[in-house]
Amino acid sequence: MQVKSCFQHSATYSLTYSLTLHPQKRPTIINFFTLSLGRALHIPSDRLSRILTISIPIIMGMLSQSILNLVDAAMVGSLGSEALAGVGIGSYASFLTVSLVMGLSAAVQTLVARRMGAKQSEEAGKPLMAGLIMGSIAALPLTFLFLLFSSELMSLFSSEQAVLDVAQPYFEWRTFAVIAVAFNFCFRGYWAGIGETKAYLKVLLWMHIANVVFSYMLIFGIPALAIPAFGAAGSGMGTCFALFLGTIIYLVSTLKKADHHGFSLHIPSKSMMKSLAHLAIPNSLQQGFFSLGVSVLFMIIGLIGSDEQAIGHILINLALLLILPSVGLGIAATSLVSHSLGANNSENAYQWGWEVVRLAMFLLLLLGLPISLFADSILRIFTNDEHLIALGTIPLQITGISITFEVTAMVLTQALLGAGASRKVLAINLVMQWCLLLPLAYLVGPILGYGLLGIWCIQSMQRISSSVLYAALWRRRSWINERF
User: Fold this and answer.
1) Judgement on whether residues 288 and 263 belong to the same structural domain of the protein
2) What Gene Ontology terms describe what this protein does at the molecular function level (predicted)?
3) 230 φ/ψ angles, rounded to the nearest 5 degrees
4) C-alpha 77: how far from its chain's center?
């Protein structure tokens, strides 16, 4: 689906042209697939192609990140269980750190796509510079704060000193790169906003290759080049350097191609900064509370027992891997909805939301059913402990079955961000996660004794309820009147 002859992009990278399909140039098999799938899902083939054009590079990029995490784990795992545990803790903590700047991506993407839809392509690059400035303003104090309290934060996850000795330096190196992460999110938002997600994928792949090379060199050392072996901390160093390299590549690529979209290194207007903050701050808070909630859920599972926490870690990561297609499709929905609203076509925006939901449900059904049927075999890839496999089999089956019904919330969350309804998203997610999921998980799991299975049932019901709530909100169309 990445064959260049399938699509034609204009020299100005207009979203309208970059998403325009040329059937006569497509291979017959792709034409047949798009037409058949579109008919089955009641999505016109040209609109289905537009969704896939944006989402597939993002999904592939996210998948490459998951593969990279496994490669990192393999390299660090050779150093022993304590090193692997320390890097795992540092990764959880760094996810919390970077989540606080994630909102910049959707905010920049929304503003860029809105201008493309309004035929103001010469203004589309200006939100990017506003995002880079806001990313600096947010990332610098966050970096200082997390470095200052890194020891205290790591101690919340483990009491074993050998593990903490690995976790803290790894986390600190990852924290140094928060500003690079913020910039990279802004660049991703810009390229997704104009519909050129292939540029995002190319930079990400180069960044991942550099990450593997840097991490290997710094973990094990290269005596011939006078590079010492830093052990597990070298993995954090390698990731840090690769993230800054990605920022440099993004900047060079953007300066070459985005000047006609109004991007420059000049200070943006006050109104532009205000609009970006209106979108980015609620979304970043929502992402921060979500990642913190995942950590709290992990701690609640730990109150049941260490075995439950061990298999829970595997289940959480499998679930996060499983939802990658819906996340990529959700990012596509952000651009498509915002672009339509910029063109003053709210009905088109409304239809985009439902069409992306239907496609996501179909894909998650294809992925979820095999996981439910072969849950036992899948868990054996990660552990040979029969007790752990027995604990995790039914929860994984529940995930495989319920994920199809949970996907509506994942997609419509992003669609609402494209409409500028970031405050509504923040309010709904706070209530559903912190007022319902976590208290009920604590009550049902450790207190009432229903264990990991009880927590997984509560989590699935919460996500399905969120999907119903988001579907009702999308159907009401109150988001059409959002202003920023």
Assistant:
1) no
2) antiporter activity; xenobiotic transmembrane transporter activity
3) -95, 0
4) 25
